[in-house]
Amino acid sequence: MKKICLFMVLALCSCAAAFAATAPSPIGDLKQKQSLGFDLTNSELTYRIWANEKVGLDVSAGFTMNGNDSLVSMGAGMVSPMTENDVFAINLIPGLKFGYGSGASVLTLVGGVGAEFMLVLSGISKDLTLSSEAGVYIGISSSNNKTNLLVAAAKDFALSPIIIRYYY
Q: Which three-class secondary structure state does DSSP give residue 128?
């Protein structure tokens, strides 16, 4: 999984020059819109809305079933642009995520800050983006009367998640 995520980021960076050759809509135009997305890694739906050019809000929710186990997750983060050009942006996203798994009765609360790497897929649509995030997260997980401290740096230094978003 780590190799796949690393490959995706390298592909994003190497494709930026190719997409720049087309006539893309600037990333600033996307900040006038809202977006719906799907997290391919965590099976979550995402929604992003921008309050202005400097601050946006991300909200996510997901439901996964694996046999008799199910997982429900919800999260929110504040999006702050760090740097951008017409086809590529890096955003800082501090946020919280809550999850509950029914199989082992696991309750998880995680907070952290990540750097999102976003590429406009202007060769396909000027309103379509692909992004991933790397960061540092800390939280707690409780299961069967046992509580654990969670500390992760981008899920073992892999980039996660992989999100495709459509702005409308």
A: strand
pTM: 0.78
- Whole domain around residue 130: which residue ranges? 2-167
| CA–CA gap between residue 162 and residue 133 (Å, rounded) | 8
Distance CA 133, CA 101 (A): 23
Q: What is the pLDDT of residues 56-100, one digit of tens each?
A: 999 999 998 888 888 899 999 999 999 998 899 999 999 999 999
CATH number at residue 63: 2.40.160
